[in-house]
Design a protein that fits this description.
about 200 residues; mainly alpha; Endochitinase, domain 2; 2 domains; two-stranded antiparallel sheet; two-stranded antiparallel ribbon; about 55% helix; globular; chitinase activity; Glycoside hydrolase family 19 catalytic domain-containing protein; Glyco_hydro_19_cat
Length: about 200
């Protein structure tokens, strides 16, 4: 059964977008709902709500795949093996000089690091290592959002660890993406999105 999109958009417009949605936000939300309806409709609706909440936060409410905010110098300092956080760079797989400025965050989940771009190149059969901006393609970004969170590719944690018939943990679900960073904020978004998911006509 399809989600009642009229109800959904009325709800999120009021409770998540201050009463107004741009066309680009509607298009982004539709793309996420389309993927869910085509690929994951039989799954737990809380997964959809938390994926929407994640995209809401990571794209700064644009609901479009975006590049991480920052300069080349910032990315080199934060993510490069020659920068100020060599252990972070190592954990991200950024072992080549310049990786920090190349493999910064992109997409709906802010995919970061050579390791993640290499992993998703194999999963998608697209060369994200050679062309990391492919992570900004809406179809690719949507697949990374859902399949990464379902399979636990980012941190080893996945949807089913936090939302299943015995468990509902909106706070710690943030560990799927980025441990506990901004967890309270995204918990609130997730619950509000969940309130907009209805199948009644």
């Amino acid at each position: 059964m399809a989600i009642n999109r009229s109800f959904f958009f009325d709800h999120v417009r009021l409770y998540l977008f201050d009463g107004k949605l741009k066309q680009s936000q509607v298009q982004g939300l539709d793309a996420i709902l389309d993927y869910w309806g085509n690929k994951m409709e039989a799954c737990d609706d809380r997964w959809l709500a938390y994926a929407l909440a994640t995209a809401h936060h990571e794209t700064d409410r644009s609901m479009q795949p975006i590049k991480e905010y920052g300069s080349t110098a910032y990315f080199m300092r934060m993510y490069d093996c020659s920068g100020g956080r060599p252990l972070v760079a190592k954990n991200l797989g950024n072992t080549h000089p310049g990786d920090g400025a190349k493999y910064y965050g992109r997409g709906y989940v802010q995919l970061t690091g050579r390791r993640n771009y290499t992993d998703w190149s194999k999963r998608l059969d697209h060369d994200l290592v050679g062309n990391p901006d492919l992570a900004l393609d809406p179809a690719i970004a949507t697949r990374i959002l859902f399949e990464g969170m379902r399979q636990g590719t980012f941190t080893g944690r996945k949807f089913a660890d936090y939302f299943n018939p015995q468990k509902e943990d909106w706070l710690n679900a943030r560990r799927i993406i980025n441990w506990i960073d901004k967890a309270n904020l995204i918990e609130g978004y997730g619950k509000r999105y969940y309130g907009g998911i209805s199948y009644t006509t």
